[in-house]
Amino acid sequence: MDAFLYVGLPYLSLTVLIVGTVVRFRQAPFSVSSLSSQVLEKKQLALGTIPWHIGILILLAGHLVAFLVPDIWRSLTANRAFLLTVETIGFMAAAMAAFGLSVLVYRRLVTARLQAVTNRMDLVVLGLLLVQVLLGIGVALGKRWGAQWSAGTTSPYLWSLFTFQPDMTYVSDLPASVKLHLGLAWVMFALIPFTRLIHGFSVPLGYLWRAPQQVIWTTRRRLTRETARAGGVNPETSRRHFVKGLGGLVAAGVLMSVGVLDKLVGYFRGQRLDRTEQVDLLEKKLERLRATAEEQSLELERLQKDAILVAQLGQLDPKIGRYFTDYQMRPALAFKGADHLPILISAKCTHLGCTVASNVDDKGQIMCPCHISYFDIRTGQPNPGAPAKLPLPRLGWLLKDAKGTVMLTQDGAGNRTWPQGQEALDPASLDGLEVWIAKRFDTEGA
Ligand code: HEM
Ligand code: FES
């Protein structure tokens, strides 16, 4: 079921979207429109359509940024103030979209003139959009800080789809409401070519450069008057047209100048950074480059090496975990257990993927701060009633001496082996041994 929902459905829906849209543009290009009903009913349309479009465009732009630049997004949302700001903007946009859409649904249902031009598909689309927006709001409120956890779950999942290496493990443990939100999104993408949603692809930019056309409502009186004057130029009409044209030109000119001025001010502002601001800017850029380089070298190391050093056993602490990155580039924690041997455990919360804190409480648990789940560090199990239902996977490890000889191994399920014999391991010199993670334990989390 999950394979269909997370891999089959997205590819099916995107294929239908692309093929259906191309066919519709080729076969019936003039049907690609929103089929405006403005002439039939105006007031409620404005009340609904304006907040709906403002709200949904902000939301979709937000979804897109989180998907396109997940790393930048993750570091931005790590800042509490930024996170609260985007969540508030998202919520306001969602409330606007939900309100606007409700008005649009109500209007189609109660206005008699509109009923005549409303088909079943219109109602299905409006209904699905409303459900999707309400589900989104439910997710945002019920599973807080989606702007943060989506960077480690839905964003990498979408990337995996678009790079044709689908990996549903990022999302398969997400709660039902998020699953439904994702599933419905795919269904709606597939519906686009068959409904008026297709107008999203026909932003009327052509109006900017096509030759002007004047639409004149013809009344009988005007027709008679114009016919009588046929052949001759009416100076009154001509002057009126000239003034109107000039007005339009001036308005367009003012708008363009504002745009150009804005760009110019931005350009010169950029140049007018003083020395300390320039240094600050460069330092920030450098910091970002260093972080990216560090991440890429970690990834490379994981591809090339069969085992990776975590720390010396003597550096590990029973109460404060030491963070490291596992083979899947996920955060993990290392502790020293009561038997003085390592405990390695994933730090990616099994609820929605936030990073679990490193401090161990009196009950031997670490906590995920996002929605408060406690996990036992020895078993990985969450506390009863926690939002997280699955245990944090435990990681296998190797203990090597200074010469690189493997003295003891433990897999993710806790099975130990002593390659040099149990008696070769001196309990008194454990602290001098090195703790490594190994590629062969990579998939054995338990
Ligand atoms: C594959 C596509 C989609 C993904 C991966 C996705 C994912 C998400 C996630 C993770 C959230 C929680 C964000 C937060 O808490 O700040 C969310 C919220 C939301 N989504 Fe989507 N979504 C998708 C498509 C859509 C579509 C097509 C619509 C509308 C037609 C939509 C409307 C909303 C709304 C209204 C919210 C609430 C925003 C808020 O209150 O902050 N989503 N979505
Ligand atoms: S992400 Fe929700 S409890 Fe950890």
Shape call = elongated
Major β-sheet strand ordering: 1-10-7-8-9
Q: What do we call the CATH topology of the largest domain?
A: Fumarate Reductase Cytochrome B subunit
The end-to-end span amounts to 23 Å
How many separate helices?
A: 12
Q: How many domain regions?
A: 2
**In percent, how helical is the residue content?**
40-55%
Main sheet record:
5 strands, antiparallel
Strand content: 5-15%
Overall SS class: alpha+beta
In angstroms, what is the radius of gyration?
A: 31 Å
Number of strands: 10
Mean of pLDDT: 83
Give, in order, the helices and strands. Answer: HHHHHHHHHHHHEEEEEEEEEE
Bound molecules: protoporphyrin IX containing FE, FE2/S2 (inorganic) cluster
Which CATH architecture of the largest domain is right?
A: Up-down Bundle
